[in-house]
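Memo subject: From amino acid sequence to discrete backbone structure tokens
Action wanted: Derive the backbone structure tokens from the amino acid sequence.
How to read it: Take the token row as a discrete description of the fold.
Attached in line: The record itself begins immediately under this heading.
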Amino acid sequence: MGDKIFVTYASAMGSTAGVADAIGKTLAEGGLEVDVRPMREVQDLTPYQAVVAGSAIHGQQWLPEAMQFVQTHRAALANKPFAAFLVCMTLAIRNAQYRETVATWLEPVRTLVRPVSEGLFAGVLSVSQIPSFGDRIKFRFSVMLGAWGEGDHRDWKAIRAWAESLRPLLSEQP
């Protein structure tokens, strides 16, 4: 096992990739050696002492490729520190607290591997980039009703703070 940290992600439109990059940079600034790559490029976790994995949320769940990553690498993840994060627009809804509900969306991950820490972050809403016409209509309507606004809702300070909190956790053995 190496002494590198691996940050990996499944991103639908790039927002989660940006969060993963920020986590990786924060860990590296703290003196850790870090690789950041999409989950679809992962073959082997042996070179890493710890893994941080995250996914965009669609339909109240991690993307299928992210769940496949955890299922495929379950044994390896169970034998090293593992942290999980998600990125979803529900956390950007104005005047509402959905953090507890959103946290339950990591339950399928927890069932396979117990994370040492979990990060929950809002994402980016660009209605014109949503591939499904029906979903674009729903998001436009919710924007008109004031549920949330388009734009980047990622809280970089919170993302960096979570990444900093991971440093001691990623050096422990599970």
Remarks:
- The chain has a mean pLDDT of 85.
- Residues 4-125+154-170 form a domain with the Rossmann fold fold (CATH 3.40.50.360).
